[in-house]
Here is the input.
Amino acid sequence: MPSRAAHSRTRARGSAASRRHVAVFPGSFDPVTYGHLDVIARGRALFDELVVAVGRNPSKDELFTQGERVSMMRELVAALVKAHPDAAPVRVEAFEGLTVDFARARGATALLRGIRNLSDLQNEVQQALTNREIAGIETAFVVAGQSFAYTSSSLIKQLTVMGRDLRALRTMVPPLVARALAAKKREGHPALARLLSQRDVAEG
Here is the structure.
């Protein structure tokens, strides 16, 4: 007859096996890039469910509203899921406040982060250690595809401001996002105007 301790271990293993592993992929996604979608695709192979958390960063000059970013992300994720229906499901949600509070509220077992280069790694490791200490939540890192190593939302905004022909963005952002960037440029969005002004001051 198995001992009580053995029975407890068996029950613990069964509980762990049945637990759903949910990850939260947080970011401002201003705008969404192919690099972001690459991380989502990789995360779907690692977890049972992925929540893409579209937040607001008060320290950044917002180009797209949170609602616009959520809408674009949902459309792009829907296409990704349709193309690969057998991988983990993905939800896109807006959030305010601390990422770790949002993750705990969603029952997440980890945060998902993409690493493009060594600079990313240094910054992300420090944040991961902090999140583990203050919230007890782990961070899973995935290395983005080589073609996305130097793609960033900041770079895309700069190219939008300076480029006459936005076709250069085709390798960095989906067509949906490229059209939205062109529209922001045509309307003279204040965030792009401020970025251009900062560039002129720096060059002066």
User: Anything to note?
Assistant: The two ends are 83 Å apart (CA to CA). The domain at 4-149 is CATH 3.40.50.620 (Rossmann fold). The CA atoms of residues 78 and 130 lie 33 Å apart.
